[in-house]
Amino acid sequence: DSDGERYILMLRVWHPELTDVERKALQFTFDALDVPGLLSEDPGEVFMAEKQLEIMRSVPVDPEVELKRKIKKNKKTVRKKGGGGFGS
Fold it and tell me: In whole angstroms, what is the distance from residue 52 CA to residue 67 CA?
């Protein structure tokens, strides 16, 4: 138990024996990481997040471009928090 930041390693891989319910739960977790509005208590924000997710799923994405986008987004988040890494 700690008040400090915790880091979790999450990989987007499927185990072939996952049940349908487990797959859906993991997909929702990854969707919420990509579109945080899905977790909002505001129905309007959830609606908009669901529409954003629909659009994201309808457009093919170049994996290399997506990786660069996520790295850039992560760097901005680290700067806002005032540090980064495990020693922060």
Answer: 19
pLDDT tens for 37-52 read 999 999 999 999 999 9
Query: Stretch 14-34: mean pLDDT, rounded?
Result: 88
CA-based nearest residue to 29, from 88, 78, 21, 83: 21
8 A C-beta contact, residue 49 and residue 37: yes
Helix axes 20-34, 43-58, angle to 10 degrees: 100
For the chain, the farthest-separated pair of C-alpha atoms sits apart, in whole angstroms, at: 42
Yes or no: say if 35 and 52 are a contact pair by the CB < 8 Å rule.
Answer: yes
By three-state DSSP, how is residue 5 classified?
A: coil
CB 37 within 8 A of CB 47: no
